[in-house]
Design brief:
Length: about 90
């Protein structure tokens, strides 16, 4: 009888903080903003020999155990001496 164990980890790999409007009166509605996602690093050039082939095989096998990156956008409105408002949404990066 085999037992399958799944392990999940959450790790922040990119964090971007921006102050959208500062101290002012906010009413319900939307606040426009833009963020820049980090560029994916270009794959390193591997030598065209046995060592390069070995690195490619190990990289391929390691990727089979790597989960995809799930992106989330977190917004927070900090209200002095009150309960802060916050929202978290999943986003799709293509």
């Amino acid at each position: 009888d085999k037992t399958v164990r799944t392990e999940t980890q959450n790790q922040t790999i990119y964090e971007f903080d921006v102050n959208l409007g500062g101290e002012q009166e906010y009413t319900s509605g939307d606040e426009p903003f833009e963020i820049q996602l980090p560029a994916s690093p270009a794959p390193a050039a591997l030598p065209d020999n046995l060592l390069g082939d070995a690195i490619r095989v190990v990289s391929f096998l390691a990727s089979a155990h790597t989960s995809p990156v799930h992106w989330k956008l977190r917004a927070r409105l900090e209200i002095p001496w009150k309960v802060n408002l916050h929202q978290e949404l999943p986003i799709t990066v293509t």
